[in-house]
């Protein structure tokens, strides 16, 4: 074979290799278009985008510092303080803006970690057999049987004042089991497919089959599991902070509710201290739930907007 022939074949194969990378971007853009075409998901993306923008640019958007307390105590709304001040003389609007950072960060970090644990355990549990599968099943069922909220409260109370990292760790420990069980069921259904059997006969190892053959076919399910875990993490963080089991020195929506309860905000007429952070928590959690509708439409075309079942023809 001459050098000219080799160069010609190399030039013919080069465009194919270069086209693989753009095809992945086009596939991702196509899937995002499916999610965006869903009205509920579009609303959730917009709401989530607003909260992420506020969290990132909080120092520029907040009129005052998060812990700046040199103002009048328990003051009503004024042009200088649109939502009034707290019992400690802090601006409520500034605390609401800075509080978005903690909720968005906890939702993202705890959601990612919980999903990673669920993926590793769920795929392994669904693929392996024998006593290993029984041991994994026992551990997962144990976490499913134990009530999550009491377990979370006990662990957080034992590790109290450990900072936001402890809150994230508690949420991850108590929030991965449901996702692992769902992924295990899907893995079992994919384990008997032809492409998995072909990989087994070709001598591929179990780890490579699980993470290179089965995992890519579960992308939408994993993304949906992430949004569910992130939603649970946001609500759990706010609940633990409200109960006083978190770090009360940080500024988050949960700590705003905690200090508002301690200062009897409803009795003093400062209902905004409870309404504003509660509404933000609800909207952020709702945005992730709405996006999940669009993620489901990626894997199930029947759920896409505009899709209608075909009418059966009568004989």
Sequence of secondary-structure elements = HHHHHHHHHHHHH
Could you name the ranges where pLDDT drops below 50 across 5 or more consecutive residues?
Answer: 1-15, 307-315
Structural Rg: 25 Å
What percentage of the residues does DSSP assign to strands (E)?
Answer: under 5%
Could you explain how this protein is built, in words?
With 315 residues, this protein is an all-alpha fold. It has helices at 3-37, 39-56, 58-61, 92-127, 131-145, 148-158, 164-175, 177-191, 194-201, 206-214, 219-242, 253-262, 272-299. The chain is elongated and about 75 Å long.
Fold blueprint:
Elements: H1 3-37, H2 39-56, H3 58-61, H4 92-127, H5 131-145, H6 148-158, H7 164-175, H8 177-191, H9 194-201, H10 206-214, H11 219-242, H12 253-262, H13 272-299
Helix pairs in contact: 1-13, 2-4, 2-13, 4-5, 4-7, 4-8, 4-11, 4-13, 5-8, 6-7, 7-11, 9-10, 11-12, 11-13, 12-13
Give the structure's gist in a few sentences.
This protein is mainly α and 315 residues long. It contains 13 helices and no strands.
Descriptive keywords:
mainly alpha, single chain, about 325 residues, 13 helices, disordered N terminus
């Amino acid at each position: 074979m001459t050098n000219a022939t080799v160069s010609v074949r190399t030039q013919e194969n080069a465009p194919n290799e270069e086209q693989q990378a753009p095809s992945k971007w086009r596939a991702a853009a196509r899937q995002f278009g499916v999610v965006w075409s869903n009205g509920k998901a579009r609303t959730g993306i917009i709401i989530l985008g607003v909260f992420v923008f506020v969290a990132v640019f909080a120092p520029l958007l907040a009129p005052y510092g998060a812990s700046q307390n040199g103002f009048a105590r328990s003051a009503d709304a004024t042009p200088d303080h649109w939502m009034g001040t707290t019992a400690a003389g802090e601006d409520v609007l500034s605390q609401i803006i800075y509080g978005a950072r903690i909720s968005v960060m906890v939702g993202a970090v705890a959601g990612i970690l919980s999903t990673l644990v669920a993926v590793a355990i769920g795929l392994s549990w669904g693929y392996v057999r024998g006593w290993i599968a029984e041991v994994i099943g026992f551990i997962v069922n144990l976490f499913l049987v134990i009530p999550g909220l009491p377990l979370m409260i006990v662990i957080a109370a034992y590790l109290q004042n450990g900072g936001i990292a402890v809150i994230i760790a508690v949420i991850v420990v108590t929030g991965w089991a449901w996702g692992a069980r769902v992924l295990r069921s899907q893995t079992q259904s994919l384990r008997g497919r032809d492409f998995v059997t072909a990989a087994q006969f070709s001598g591929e190892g179990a780890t490579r089959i699980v993470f290179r053959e089965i995992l890519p076919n579960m992308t939408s399910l994993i993304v949906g599991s992430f949004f569910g875990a992130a939603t649970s993490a946001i609500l759990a963080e706010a609940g633990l902070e409200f109960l006083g089991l978190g770090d009360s020195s940080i500024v988050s929506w949960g700590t705003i509710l905690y200090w508002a309860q301690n200062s009897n905000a409803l009795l003093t007429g400062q209902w905004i201290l409870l309404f504003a952070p509660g509404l933000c928590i609800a909207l952020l959690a709702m945005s992730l739930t709405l996006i999940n509708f669009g993620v489901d439409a990626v894997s199930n075309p029947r759920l896409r907007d505009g899709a209608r079942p075909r009418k059966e023809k009568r004989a």
